[in-house]
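Exercise 7b. Backbone tokens:
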């Protein structure tokens, strides 16, 4: 009964946008959330989630790649209709754009350093992230970079002593690096869960995506995708 009700809500919410062409903006540089394959096609957890949400909502969706540091301004400017890019829901961002319900629960940010290093000294973080804001608010020695790859390179070269980023992004890097890096210090909980960014004027689209997210949660499909992309340690509903 619950599943039938959620599906009905999805149909009602998406009625006014059912035939719309919706453009989904993502960074394409933050696996396993989102990345690009050899053909420059979007891949990752959010590609699968976004495509499925559009299918449930009855929308025709296309993907647009945009640098992280301008991803909110370009949503507001109309260059795409929604952000799906590992973006944590925060009060500051919510003053500029709206958010759907979260499609990934709140999870910790972690510090990563070269093996034998620590979570002090110069801390690298990606520009305009909750991690950069946290380091700055704590009075830390922050160095910001436009892309996540540059934050890792800064630790590797010694330009930074550690990087603070989403744990779900850093853990695979540590595992694949064969002992070069290590998680250090204590986990940091900042921001809410991850949701889709929507223009404040696009209430119909928000309602359609909220209903589709609710359906994926109720069916267990969202948890299955989280586990597929983030492993058994991924935060689930």
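Sequence design result:
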């Amino acid at each position: 009964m619950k599943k039938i009700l959620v599906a009905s809500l999805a149909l009602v919410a998406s009625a006014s946008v059912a035939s719309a062409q919706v453009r989904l903006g993502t960074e394409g540089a933050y696996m396993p959330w989102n990345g690009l394959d050899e053909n420059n096609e979007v891949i990752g957890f959010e590609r699968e989630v976004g495509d499925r949400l559009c299918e449930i909502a009855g929308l025709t969706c296309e993907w647009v790649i945009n640098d992280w540091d301008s991803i909110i301004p370009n949503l507001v400017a109309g260059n795409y209709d929604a952000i799906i890019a590992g973006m944590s829901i925060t009060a500051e961002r919510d003053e500029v754009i709206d958010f759907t319900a979260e499609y990934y629960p709140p999870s910790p940010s972690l510090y990563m350093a070269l093996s034998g290093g620590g979570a002090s000294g110069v801390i690298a973080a990606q520009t305009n992230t909750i991690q950069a804001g946290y380091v700055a608010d704590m009075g830390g020695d922050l160095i910001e970079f436009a892309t996540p790859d540059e934050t890792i390179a800064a630790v590797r070269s010694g330009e930074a002593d550690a990087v603070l980023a989403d744990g779900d992004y850093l853990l695979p890097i540590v595992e694949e690096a064969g002992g070069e890096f290590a998680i250090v210090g204590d986990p940091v909980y900042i921001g809410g869960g991850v949701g889709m960014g929507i223009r404040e004027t696009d209430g119909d689209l928000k309602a359609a995506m909220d209903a589709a997210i609710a359906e994926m949660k109720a069916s267990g499909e969202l948890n299955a995708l989280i586990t597929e992309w983030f492993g058994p340690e991924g935060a689930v509903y």
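Instructor comment: The two ends are 19 Å apart (CA to CA). Confidence is low (pLDDT under 50) at residues 1-16.
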